[in-house]
Amino acid sequence: MEYTGSKYIGEYVDGRMEGKAKYILPTETIYVGEMKDGVFHGEGTLYFPSGSQYDAVWENGLAIKVWLNSPIWTHLEKSPRATTIVETASITPSRG
């Protein structure tokens, strides 16, 4: 992961990121939770440098259930590649 600027701390199965993990992105956004086949899968939380967080249940890289104390998103986000989009959305003021 060093070549992408990300850092993965966790378990591997057959060379793929899988199990409980901590995934640190170059933007300093941190994911803590479960992974399967190299993507967010299961319960996990994104922690943003701003101090906000996004608690969700993930399925194959998509947020399928969001806890009530988390922000509401208008579309599902893939991860970890789209985490930058999620982070941008978390600091973008709502329209209206």
UniProtKB/TrEMBL annotation:
Coiled coil: none annotated. It comes from the Eukaryota. One of its GO terms (cellular component) is motile cilium. It is found in: Cell projection, Cilium, Flagellum. Keywords: Cell projection, Cilium, Flagellum, Repeat. It comes from Piliocolobus tephrosceles. Its main location: other. This is MORN repeat-containing protein 5. Signal peptide: none annotated.
